[in-house]
Design a protein that fits this description.
alpha+beta, Protocatechuate 4,5-dioxygenase, Chain B, Glycoprotein, Type 4 Pilin, 2 domains, eight-stranded mixed beta sheet, globular
Length: 477
């Protein structure tokens, strides 16, 4: 079932917006989604935090929480599970990212200063961080986006009780596109560097399905989140699939964890509204952690590791071409759990038949190889999809990438050692290290060809285009 979860209609500014002089967002949902009386609300939240407190918090850097945004009667204990997990950790500012349910717009709206009011008082907005995020992302303040948006407001009382004294940065995400998600993740990574910042991704799971169907769909969505399959989550979010209304905020959190190191998901609680009758809405509480920063330089792979990755790529191509199935990484190899950029190149009788990959870590290495192999066989726009009769004639080459490094001087690009990414505006082109060596290019030709690959003029590298290099461990069947 494909269904847009967020009903987007243009509305005007209402009384729920901030008072202009103070820029305080008045509470719009007290008495509806949560208790209006301050004493009763505080007691309710505190009790939920105590009831859901974990016996012991796992080690690792806490990057983000995933928390539902339904009425507290339905999802309050689930939301409390997320905040109870985090409340003993140092938190200076909480960035709350919620999907827009009412207003259609592109990008994100960032509340710039002032505060958010609830019956518990006013949560101060961290104006310095908010403005840093806006500067790094290019996003602006769209007041209408906050007028009647519950996905932000219902999180604030939990922030106030779990992290007394912490400030907030409210962010409403409009159209949940890949570009918006990646821009926000990049901006948050830069703006929050060196600070105790916690991101809260506000989302419910599937909406208004029969219980059995809702359970199956929510289990599949949680499996994608656990496996950090951001590519699949972005595709389903952009398509409007009925999997979760806040897919964009969730993927933003996952991408942040990948930037921080080796990401890991701790599912804390999953519930739904089935106990209240009628069609079901699903709820998830989860912690997004990062265990350790990735090591610099190429990944050290033994010959056995390389052979195992090649077998994984071949099984992925065969399964997708024959049955349109995506296989799983069941190797159990711990080296394949680290996030890495990877490209899969298919050749038929020595000629290129497909090449697709990810310049930056999009999933653990094993899963990234599986996904890139299936895409190389089916989604390289230069070639028709691979047919079953071609499988025996295909040879597979893998390129496992190091992290991208920005280039200040084009003369530092070394042919035969470096791969190259050229970016300008929304255009990006990538060439693997083996390409210039195979074609006998010198450095200027390499730079020109990378620009052309991006759809840019051949001299764009001289005219402000961003250059990034990487190295790769390259091996083939």
């Amino acid at each position: 079932m494909k269904k847009a979860l967020c009903i987007l209609t243009a509305i005007g500014v209402s009384a729920g917006l901030a008072l202009a002089a103070e820029n305080i967002k008045r509470a719009s949902f007290a008495g509806q989604f949560y208790e209006r009386d301050p004493a009763r609300l505080a007691a309710m939240v505190d009790d939920a935090l105590v009831r859901t407190a974990p016996a012991a918090a796992p080690e690792g850097k806490l990057v983000a929480l995933i928390s539902p945004h339904a009425g507290y009667l339905y999802s309050g204990l689930t939301a409390a599970s997320a905040y109870a997990f985090a409340r003993r950790r140092p938190v200076e500012t909480v960035v709350i990212i919620g999907p827009s349910h009412q207003v259609a717009f592109r990008g994100c709206s960032v509340w710039p200063d002032g505060g958010f009011e609830t019956p518990l008082g006013t949560a101060r907005v961290d104006k310095d961080l908010a403005r840093a995020v806006m500067k790094a992302s290019g996003f602006r303040f769209v007041p209408e986006a906050f007028a009647k948006e519950h996905s932000i407001e219902v999180q604030v009382p939990f922030v106030q009780r779990a992290f007394p004294g912490a400030s907030i940065v409210p962010v409403v995400m409009g159209a949940q596109t890949r570009r918006t998600i990646e821009r926000l993740a990049d901006a948050l990574e830069k703006a929050a560097r060196g600070r105790d910042v916690l991101v809260v991704a506000s989302t419910d799971l599937s909406h208004f399905l029969p219980q059995e169907e809702a359970e199956a769909r929510d289990a599949a969505t949680v499996s994608l989140i656990r496996s950090l399959d951001t590519e699949a989550l972005i595709r389903r979010t952009e398509a409007g699939d009925n999997v979760m209304c806040g897919g964009g905020p969730v993927v933003t959190a996952l991408l942040l964890a990948k930037k921080a190191g080796r990401p890991r998901i701790e599912v804390l609680r999953r519930t739904d509204s089935s106990g209240f009758g009628g069609p079901v809405v699903g709820y998830l509480a989860a912690a997004v952690l990062s265990d350790a920063p990735p090591g610099p330089g190429p990944l050290l792979l033994t010959d056995d590791d390389k052979a195992e990755l090649l077998r994984l790529a071949r099984s992925s191509v065969a399964a997708f071409v024959d049955r349109r199935e995506i296989v799983e990484d069941r190797t159990g190899n711990p080296k394949f759990l680290a996030g890495r950029g990877v490209f899969v190149t298919l050749k038929k009788r020595g000629e290129l038949r497909g090449c697709v990959g990810f310049a930056e870590p999009s999933a653990p290495l094993g899963q990234a190889v599986i996904r890139a192999a299936a895409l190389a066989a089916s989604q390289d726009s230069r070639f028709p999809p691979v047919e079953p009769a071609e499988l025996d004639d295909l040879r597979i080459e893998l390129s496992v990438l190091t992290a991208l490094e920005e280039v200040a001087d084009p003369k530092s690009v070394k042919v035969g050692r470096h791969g190259l990414v050229v970016t300008q505006g929304d255009k990006k082109g990538l060439l693997l290290p083996q390409v210039p060596a195979e074609n006998g290019w010198d450095r200027p030709t390499f730079l020109r060809q990378a620009c052309l690959k991006a759809g840019l003029p051949p001299d764009a590298w001289r005219r402000g285009a961003k250059l990034q290099t990487f190295e790769a461990v390259v091996f083939h069947e």
